[in-house]
UniProtKB/TrEMBL annotation:
Domain Fe2OG dioxygenase span(s) in chain numbering: 202-327
Keywords assigned by UniProt, alphabetized: Dioxygenase, Iron, Metal-binding, Oxidoreductase
Protein name in the entry: Fe2OG dioxygenase domain-containing protein
Coiled-coil portions: none
SMART domains registered for this protein in UniProt: P4Hc (SM00702)
Lineage: Eukaryota, Sar, Stramenopiles, Ochrophyta, Bacillariophyta
Amino acid sequence: MAFVHLECGRNQLQRQHHVMHSTAMPTNIVGPRVPINEGFPGLKKIYANPDIFVIENFLDDSYCQDLIDKASEKKLVRSPVAYAGWTEDFKDLVELSSKGPIAWIALLSSWFQVKNSGGGQVDLVVHALQNYAVVFVVTTILIGGFTYSRAEGLKALRTSTSTTLDDMTNPSSGAREFVRQASKLFHSNEDFDTSIVSEAALFEAPTVIRYEPDQILAPHYDANRSAETEDANRGGQTLATLLVYLNDVERGGLTRFGKLSSSAAIGDVDRDRITSADEDKLIIQPKRGDALLFFPADRNGQFDPRTEHEGMPAIDEKWIARIWKHQRRVPAPFGLSEASLSDLG
């Protein structure tokens, strides 16, 4: 089963998405999600198991516009693609080859060598070990080349541009307000000011993403089955995704959950906004200032395959801002620096 990382952000260091090419639903047991402030203003659950929320008026228009303006000033770059889950794929391919084709090639080649030279069983074993080592090295190099070529061939899966905003010094900035609101959402205690830094330390820096007409984000996951290895320097597994729509999008640009049925949606929410006349899939119509919250993995980091989603082709221009919450402290440059965290207080 293959995954792809879709990286975006400053210096190509932004957190990765994971695109799955298999249509099979992986089997696993998903536990409870991370807790949130269930009394957060505007919070509406639209789907249960997996839990998905819409948060109305999460950011005011002025903050939305500031996020767009600051991202435009900083200059957005093409969101690059990198292979996600490559460590597992590489390991699986090498292990499969070493147990099958490599062993047979080494054994057969050594048998012909001994047969032609007239050697005995000891010679057969020596030649087999030598040939196995040579074939193993060559096969490993070929698998590495295959992995690289696959990553290069998947760059069309995401065509948006993006950048990160980590300056928290301006009290009226959209990025600062986004982080503070996110901290309130994920913190249920009343003593908010004392916890804002510890909560925000688990976030990646806010990312602003722009989709121009015809640009897409292919079906993908925000969590990673190999998070402990590949995302160790990003705070481990992604436990929650918080998206804010920065502009109204009347045509195209829907957020679509391809494994969830819109007929199973719950709660007091505008049905026209989450359903499609063409198919029974859960979709979200972008509305300026509203946020979308879902959980790519449970609170222990167990990957949840049900949260596969995509950004459908844009017709009108679409802007979003995103924060990922991780298991542990996310160090700079992926997360906020110590100076930026102190500016939040």
